[in-house]
Hints:
Strand order of the largest sheet: 1-2
Low-confidence stretches: 3-14, 171-189
Oligomer: single chain
Shape: elongated
Number of strands: 2
Radius of gyration: 21 Å
Structural class: mainly alpha
Distance between the termini: 36 Å
Helix content: 55-70%
Number of domains: 1
Amino acid sequence: MTFTWDVGTFDSGATMDSILWHPRIVHLPIALAVIVPLVASGVLLAWWRDWLPARSWWIAVALQGLLVTTGFAAMQTGEADEERVEHLVPHDAVEAHEEAGEAFVWLGAGVFVLFALGGALPKRTLQLGFASAAVVGSLAGLAAGVSVGSKGGDLVYVHGAANAFTSSAPSGGSAPVGSAHDDDHDDDD
């Protein structure tokens, strides 16, 4: 049995390492970077106005925790894929994406502490203060997510990193994804 994906064909006996985990996982923390500030702002407003109880803040805490967890998973899977693309993509571009990803995850972890303190502290004024700081921090996380996503997009669309995962991957150099590669013509005529 054969499965066809956007970037190539893999047989059903493919190992877990050969399945492209990084591009599958990386979109969740980036999506959460957009969702968390919206949800957290809404929950904070509802909590401050007494429309929702204080415990509703834990919804935002859980979402931020999921962002950090999936961000860490994306970092790990990116490390695994780095070896496959390093012969196609300039080292500096890979390094910039990797550093942006690490900054995104570490910032997310720090903001998670603010989220948790907003839910765990005993006084309402302290809770609301830390929750407000967490919302601001989540906006910084959104900016960091845009940066890491942009650098990852450059790897794929500018430097051709996806070519490392196709059966017709070039043996070296840096060719954009849209470059001409025609296997139908032989030079042996």
